Prior knowledge:
Layout: E1 16-21, E2 25-33, E3 41-49, H1 52-64, E4 69-73, H2 79-88, E5 93-96, H3 98-101, H4 111-123, H5 135-167, H6 182-193, H7 198-202, H8 213-219, H9 226-259, E6 261-264, E7 276-279, H10 280-287, H11 295-305, H12 315-321, E8 327-331, E9 334-338, H13 345-359, H14 364-381, H15 384-397, H16 410-413, H17 417-430
Parallel strand pairs: 1-4, 4-5
Antiparallel strand pairs: 1-2, 2-3, 6-7, 8-9
Amino acid sequence: MEELREDHDDGTVARVAAIDIGKASGMVCLRVPHDTIEGRRVQKVWTVASMTNAILELGDTLVCQGVERVVMEATGSYWRPFFYLLEARGLDCWLVNARDVKNVPGRPKTDKLDAVWLAKLAERGMVRASFVPPKPVRQLRDFTRTRTVFVQERTRHKHRVDKALQDAQIKLPGVVSDLFGRSGRAMLDAMVAGERNPRTLADLARGNLVKKKPALVEALTGQFEDHHARLLQVLLGTVDHLTAQIQELDRLIARTLEEITTPHGGSGTGDEPTATTVSARVLAERLDAVPGIGPATAQIILAEIGADMRRFPTPEHLVPWAKLCPRTIQSGAKNTSGPAGQGNPWLKGALGEAANAAARTDTFLGARYRRIVKRRGHAKALVAARSILVITWHLINDPDASYQELGTDWHRRHLDPARKTRDLVRQLQALGHQVALSPASA
């Protein structure tokens, strides 16, 4: 029999408030001990408008009641005013996943009952707080997410430019590798300005494209009309506007990274602390050394997981939170793995791009991908995303850590000779051979 020792702090909270949040208001449930009767609880439920003054008044009320924890559901983006304002008032705010607290069959679905149920779960310590980063990291997250959306939108408009050229029988994208490079953009601007002569347009080629002038003349011969020029002008203007906005966001992100600092180490005695402070910019540069991670990806990772790993004590805490490992399911003597889950789409998207880029490199991560893809396929072989996240945790958590490339032959150098011999013998026997091994002479 396994003996378990219960912690002294079992997670119960005596004075708790829960908020079922909607767009225009929130249903608040306050549960506190009775003043005179021991073991009895006093419950109060009321509606609070989602306006600043109403939320501030709610914060004062909860502080006067000595509330120890405020729990609210993650409902869209409507939880943000309640969380930020109550947190600024000094209350301990927890954001919980609505999916984890609504699985109660046979109960009517009302805002009041939801708030009461959430309060009861909170006072018994049966809910887990979601990760809400501090304000500077939230601001960085806003910038990086907006930049990601703008980059995607710019790509969509570039594809529309391609469609407009195809409609005009202009096959320039088939000859120019980068339609929005120096040569390609010069030809597009000339067509918008009224130039229709294919040879004149082909003379705008620069660099290696000069050798492709005959192919450019052929590709620029089509039915480009004034209608296409007007459409192209609108699309190019939108692309230029998005490019300018992305550059401005890059500047804001760089400035925000300088403002975010993370303390490492312990504090000393007296007036001279021994803790070292590392800026997020230094952490981003450190992450940039990992194969597959570029400057933009490093910024996204820091914006999504933060620069302080105290929230994730070990990599084993961070990886399940990011939903990059399968869920363990045990029933009797049978152990299976379930789906990993959705996770943070912004983080998983950035890590997926990094894993795909690392898989094409001549590095340890690339060799690991090629080693696994042969037997498990592309989707399973992208475990580099998990490996990159583990590497990221160590680089952020340890101020003295730096990425060390293990090399493509790491698996071969750490191979178990007996296991490899057994596998090869088994393969030969499966082909119908009798194998007899003898040790090589010294």
